[in-house]
Design brief:
The protein is α/β, with parallel strands linked by helices. The protein has a single domain, classed as TIM Barrel. It has ten helices and eight strands. Strands 1-2-3-4-5-6-7-8 form an eight-stranded parallel β-barrel, surrounded by seven helices. α4 packs parallel to α6, α6 crosses α7 and α7 packs across α8.
């Protein structure tokens, strides 16, 4: 995609994110207010905060993304499926699910694919983004993961939870874009804290950014006049 030239164009690429375990209801409400002000694509929250975010954003066109199997990806498949169903019932319109990294490293592609397909089915047609946690994978594993995500019927590959030992890198975004092709979603997340990092990820092939610094990033494109 071409680089955004206005704050509004950039905001539509951003999932405005708050996933801290100690995030309060008031902080979630502020997250939603910022999303309304800047017209971010979505807010991304933990499952127990989906209902609050949904009610604050209802009718606005701003989507609510819920994380599933977060942040480790190692829960039982049935737990991930139930988490997805609960998030959708609470108003989520996007699901960010963490891939089972251990099973991928075992070479158990069949398990990984089945689990992802079950999550896609549980999402009832809503967007599913699959978090690879690329800092834990070698290049061959990243390639296999991308191909499994595409085969599963999900809609997007995502670099990172933001809770791993490192976040998105330009090299990983380029690899993911190469593997999934031009029509598939690529989300860069983890460590994107300023405008230059955001634009670099988009230039590398990301069409969505997950960040808690969305307000500062869009304001940096054209700083507000004081």
């Amino acid at each position: 995609m071409s680089l955004p030239s206005t704050p509004g164009e950039l905001a539509r690429c951003i999932d405005h994110t708050l996933l801290r375990a100690d995030a309060t209801g008031g902080e979630i409400e502020r997250l939603c207010a910022e999303a309304l002000q800047h017209r971010f694509h979505s807010v991304c929250v933990n499952g127990s905060r989906v209902e609050l975010a949904y009610h604050r954003l209802e009718g606005s066109g701003i989507r609510v993304a819920a994380v599933v199997g977060f942040p480790l990806g190692a829960a039982e498949s049935d737990v991930k499926t139930h988490e997805t169903e609960a998030a959708i019932d609470a108003g989520a319109t996007e699901i960010d699910v963490v891939l089972n990294l251990g099973r991928l490293k075992d070479g158990d592609d069949r398990f990984v694919l089945r689990e992802l397909r079950d999550v896609v089915e549980a999402a009832q047609g809503q967007v599913v983004k699959v978090i690879l946690e690329t800092c834990c994978l070698d290049e061959a594993e990243k390639v296999r993961a991308c191909r499994l995500v595409v085969e599963s019927g999900a809609h997007c590959v995502k670099t990172s939870t933001g809770f791993g030992r490192s976040g998105a890198t330009i090299e990983d975004v380029r690899l993911m874009r190469r593997e999934v092709g031009p029509g598939f979603g690529v989300k860069a997340a983890g460590g994107i804290r300023d405008l230059s990092a955001a634009l670099a990820m988009i230039e590398a092939g990301a069409d969505r950014l997950g960040t808690s610094a969305g307000v500062a990033i869009v304001q940096a494109l054209h700083p507000p006049v004081l």
